[in-house]
Amino acid sequence: MNPSGFMTTGINLHSGIKFALGFVFLLSGIPSGNASAAEIDYFTNPVVYSDYSDPDAIASPDGKGYYMTASSFHCAPGLPILFSEDMVNWEIVNHALKQVPPVDFYNETPRHGKGVWAPSIRHHNGKYYIYWGDPDFGIFMVSASDPRGEWTEPILVKEGKGMIDPTPLWDDNGKAYLAFAWAASRSKFNSVISLWEMKPDGTALIGNPKIVFDGNAGGNHTCEGPKLYKHDGRYYILCPAGGVDKGWQLALRSNDVWGPYESKIVLQQGNSAINGPHQGALIETPSKEPWFIHFQESQPWGRILHLNPVKWVDGWPVMGNNGEPVSRATMPQKAVKSHNIATSDNFDNGIIGLQWQWHGNYSPEFGMPLTEGKMRVYGFLTDSIPNLWNVPNLFLQKFHSPGFSATAKVKVTARDDRQQSGIVVMGRDYFRVAVQKQGDKFIIRCIECHDAENSGQETIVRELPLTDAKAIEAGLYPNYECDIWLRLDVAPDGICRFAYSLDGKKFNDTDVSFKAREGKWIGAKYGIYSIAPASAERGWIDVDSFIVNNRKK
After folding, report:
1. Candidate from 26-30, 110-114, 258-262, 371-375 with smallest mean pLDDT
2. Largest Cα span, the chain
3. Which terminus of the chain is less hemmed in, N or C, by CB atoms within 10 Å?
4. Average pLDDT of the chain?
5. Are 229 and 122 spatial neighbours (Cβ–Cβ below 8 Å)?
6. Rounded distance, CA 281 to CA 228, Å?
7. Partner residues linked to 203 by β-bridges
8. Least reliable range by pLDDT among 382-386, 457-461, 492-496, 505-509
């Protein structure tokens, strides 16, 4: 036990996570909003304006920084690893999961809303552990000696349906425990927190579980997402209740890990403008100041992250300003180095930036980088699907700021007139700009789809002439190429507009707009796609650069 009373074997709450900088901070090369001298001692919420839902974080044992992970659902690679030296400036440094298990199931088609739910990251006996629940298959774990290095293949700690949001604790008596919640969509009950003893090596559960808290009994419906800690000899479970957008944060405490637990609401919206403040990590700076990093539902951006100070009052961790979230506060510590979550990418040396994810487990026919510094996405072969909802090789990244633009310099290659490649804003509703060969010319089609999850049909809202097709000899039939710049502009209200250019200088507005919408349990995403009829050879799109800029104030 360290002097502050936090268990260093279970969660090392010496784990600050400090985040700064609200609405203007996250983009390529642009410093975060607290970078000016006048603002250096403060941060503004939300601190990460991007969909890193269900965040969990710890301090590295060497005291040199902080690591965070978040839900990734069906997207791959999964379990993003973010790092900060000062709890203000964050960067993506790795993914702990190359493919979502079971691999065969997640290889077949995008499994929207399934996969990796609410992970917990911990450090114990020289190793980092991440646990997560897949509501259809059970509780999984990966581990690593270095969060930036290779993580182990996933271990199925406990097979079963409905078990979600696991959180481990290695106690000072040598025993280990796992708390978790239940998904009503699979188990047909929820609003309870269960506890199970775990083997000390963290690979399997022992005996049988017990319910240690029943949210049904006290009006705390939908309690889930538990995080298990030990502080000053007491056991604490922090868990959200009340639902994603209107809920609150509970603290449970007991003198025995098995309970009984008493409960207290320690964070709720109150008179603030911040809805549903809950589910995250209790962390502590090197100077022993406790903080709470949590999400807020803010579609179409997804679940964006806030940071609130914490005070221990009569043995309870009271968060924010007397239990209400703050919009601005003194930073836990001064900035050390400026980092930004990556967005732009030139694909230098054939390396793909860590901000990109596929909509399913990766397969080489999805595409791959070229050694000369481009990213190729091949056409997904299909004749039977009504829209892009079930296309796994969408090459996407998260919305990341309340206003931004993205410009992709690309070369589209096609043989068949039905092949289409371009840029897409993806969600339950989506919009895509298609560059399509039509005879000896290329055209642009602006295509919109509503309610894609339920087989909503695509609608061509505008068609524009583009340029003559350039034929390149390629065996029996030539390839036809088109060099073009495609631009997306996203306003703070989620309205998206699209433009294109043939020289990278003069851009032509398509004169169409689209209201972005979230995906299933994730925020809206944007990026590159290519599709082709199943009877044809694959066309493709080569991305030379993908440049993102923040909207100026």
Report:
1. 26-30
2. 80
3. C
4. 90
5. no
6. 10
7. none
8. 382-386
Nearest to 422 by CA among 451, 470, 388: 388
Would you call the peptide bond into 260 cis, given omega within 30 degrees of 0 as the criterion? yes
The pLDDT of residue 32 is above 50: no
Q: Which two tokens stand for residue 187?
A: 């188990």
Q: Which of 214, 236, 234, 232 is nearest to 223 (CA)?
A: 214
Question: Does the pLDDT at position 22 exceed 60?
Answer: no
Q: For residues 481 and 470, is the Cβ–Cβ distance under 8 A?
A: yes
Rounded Cα–Cα distance for residues 488 and 505 (Å): 15
- Taking the C-alpha atoms of residue 168 and residue 121, their distance in angstroms, rounded to an integer, is 9
Within 10 angstroms of residue 65's Cβ, the number of other Cβ atoms is 18
**Taking a C-beta distance cutoff of 8 angstroms, is the pair 251, 264 a contact?**
yes
Query: How many Cα neighbours within 13 Å face the side chain of 510?
Result: 30
d(CA 288, CA 282): 12
CA distance readout (Å), 17 to 14, 93, 96, 312: 10, 16, 19, 18
pLDDT of residue 149: 98
**238: which 2 tokens?**
């922090």
Residues of the chain with pLDDT > 90, as a percent, come to 80
CA distance 115 to 96: 14
- N-to-C CA span, the chain: 47
Closest CA to 135 of 158, 155, 103, 154: 158
Question: For 60-89, what is the mean pLDDT?
Answer: 92
- The pTM is what? 0.91
Q: In the block, which residue shows the tokens 């965040």? A: 55
Q: Considering only CA atoms, which of 223, 289, 295 is closest in space to residue 261?
A: 223
Inter-CA distances, 34 with 334, 525, 552, Å: 10, 26, 15
